[in-house]
Design brief:
Layout: E1 6-11, E2 16-21, H1 29-42, E3 53-56, E4 59-66, E5 69-75, H2 81-97, H3 103-108, H4 110-120, E6 121-122, E7 125-126, H5 131-137, H6 140-153
Antiparallel strand pairs: 1-2, 1-5, 3-4, 4-5, 6-7
Length: about 160
């Protein structure tokens, strides 16, 4: 099975809130994918031409709209569409379970969001998407501690709480 190359979460205007490139796409590919999606879906005036799956310029797209967000899966190879849709719906459920499924909350919860995107897919192949299981090893507190540890190892100084 071919895997998902990247996932983008966009607001209703087509601005990228968060993205995850699972396959080191060529430089500019994520930007090109976003621009193509906006042109083919958000800016399209004929609703008959708006389709949930399409291919253009060597990239394959599958997307869902849920709430105030678009979740977009991009692949360089033809991917099982049902797997892509299932993954996108489960990813939305994970964001809802973590109470971060709005543009503002996703943007302000970068550490948790990126950890979740790393865990729900391995090199673009969907893995664990059950929020109950994910909560066992990804919490906002853990991500905060991980960030502090990375800053410390990089030579940064952490202030001690008073």
């Amino acid at each position: 099975m071919a895997s998902i190359s990247a996932v983008l979460v966009l607001d209703l205007q087509g601005r990228t809130i968060v993205s995850r490139d699972y396959h080191s796409l060529p430089q500019g590919s994520l930007s090109r994918a976003r621009i193509t999606f906006v042109r083919r879906v958000i800016d399209e005036t004929d609703p008959v031409r708006v389709v949930p799956v399409f291919s253009e310029e060597g990239l394959h797209y599958a997307w869902i709209k849920r709430g105030q967000l678009f979740l977009l899966a991009v692949a360089t190879q033809n991917t099982a569409t049902s797997t892509a849709f299932s993954f996108l719906y489960r990813l939305a459920d994970v964001f809802v379970a973590y109470d971060i499924f709005t543009p503002d909350k996703l943007a302000s919860s970068g550490g948790v969001v990126h950890e979740l995107l790393d865990e729900v897919a391995d090199h673009g192949i969907p893995q664990v998407t059950d929020p109950a299981i994910l909560r066992d090893f990804i919490t906002a507190h853990d991500v905060g501690l991980l960030g502090a540890a990375k800053r410390f190892l990089a030579g940064g100084v952490e202030e001690q709480p008073k």
